[in-house]
Amino acid sequence: MKEAQLYEELSNGVVKCTACPRRCRISPGLWGACGIRWNIDGKLYLMNYGRVIAAHIDPIEKKPLYHFNPGSAVFSIATTGCSWFCQYCQNADISQRRRVEGFEVTPQLLVDLAAAYGAHGFAYTYNEPTIFMEFARDVGILSHERGLFNSFVSNGYMTDEAISMAAQFLDAITVDLKGNASEKFLRRYVGVPSPEPIFAALRELKRKGIYVEVTDLVVPRVGDDLSDARRVARWIVDELGPETPVHFLRFHPDYKMLDIPPTPVETLEKHAEVAREEGLLYVYIGNVPGHELENTHCPSCGRVVIRRRGFELLEWNIEDGKCKYCGAKIHLRGELKPTWSEDRFMQVPIHLFSNYTEVKLSDVKGMRLPGEEAPQL
């Protein structure tokens, strides 16, 4: 554990956490809604600092980040706890766990591991990274020194104070709206009173220069209203820009929502149509491998400039940042990475390294990415 920075001291030993818009007021001996920020003797402590519950190498397309350093391999880490209580969470075993658990590591160890595995950057994911912002910041600053980028997979439920800290190290973020950001849906199935803090955070993230993509989990019956989708799409065009990639994700039953069926593909297609009507240039459908809207189409000529299947890149038709067919600009941040054609899935046995103070390439021999050069494009 380590003393947090995102908090204020109040009277009688009470503290106010400023990591998320709940701004929990926490008395001594108690903890915030996330389960990992505890008041000990009038000080707020991040109890999961240096405790990693999951570690994997993933394709960046899994986050999903489609327009940020495509083809890269990211070192993905998570802790326990979360600021939301999503009843459909596919990672509920770690995000909704209210015991502080995980393998003990240092920020330096994680950065050494990421470099040894040949990762291009970090993704703080699987649970909400805002709640362990101070830990992510310490990892992120060290990772920048090694030439690695940092990305969040987040619910976007962040305060200005948290975003100011994130701006010290964060390069990109996927903000995952739920149920078309319907207030009714969020209150009933997520446990937050309003989507407004998310939209405020998106504005501030954009203002800080952090690259943003938006996802929207479309939940049939209870979170798939097309008028809500149109409202969100219009807001993104006006506030973030029409070039902002937006992904409509297929819901599948999980955790406490096993009675809701998977989202019909037709529903996702209608959402994509509405988003394009509102002026969004890059609209995707996620969790439907092989669908045409996994691909990136040139906004000018409509040809496929990046072909995908699931998290694989199959085809790259961009030259000098432009469509090779018509020369129109394709909005990307970063560059295509050499691992784009490789298998970028790998579990990191973090428990084997939790007692290490230094990691060498020989320690991960046989567990590294192939690292072959990409074919000539």
Structural class designation? alpha/beta
| CATH C-level name of the largest domain | Alpha Beta
- Principal-axis shape equals globular
Number of domains: 2
Residue windows where pLDDT falls under 50 for at least 5 positions: 372-377
In angstroms, what separates the terminal alpha carbons?
Answer: 48 Å
Mean pLDDT: 94
CATH superfamily of the largest domain: Aldolase class I
Please summarize what this structure is.
The chain is α/β, with parallel strands linked by helices and 377 residues long. It has helices spanning 92-95, 107-116, 133-145, 160-166, 183-189, 196-207, 226-239, 265-277, 350-353; strands at 2-3, 7-9, 15-17, 25-26, 37-40, 43-46, 51-52, 54-59, 73-78, 103-104, 121-124, 149-154, 172-178, 211-218, 246-250, 283-286, 296-297, 304-309, 312-316, 318-319, 322-323, 346-347.
What does this structure look like?
By secondary structure, this protein is of the alpha/beta class. The protein folds into two domains: 2-46, no CATH class; 51-290 and 334-346, Alpha-Beta Barrel (TIM Barrel). 22% of the residues lie in helices and 23% in strands. It contains nine helices and 22 strands. The chain has helices spanning 92-95, 107-116, 133-145, 160-166, 183-189, 196-207, 226-239, 265-277, 350-353, and strands at residues 2-3, 7-9, 15-17, 25-26, 37-40, 43-46, 51-52, 54-59, 73-78, 103-104, 121-124, 149-154, 172-178, 211-218, 246-250, 283-286, 296-297, 304-309, 312-316, 318-319, 322-323, 346-347. Strands 16-15-14-13-12-11-9-8-22 form a nine-stranded mixed sheet. A hairpin with a 2-residue loop joins strand 18 and strand 19 (312-316). It is globular, with a radius of gyration of 20 Å. The model is unreliable at 372-377 (pLDDT under 50).
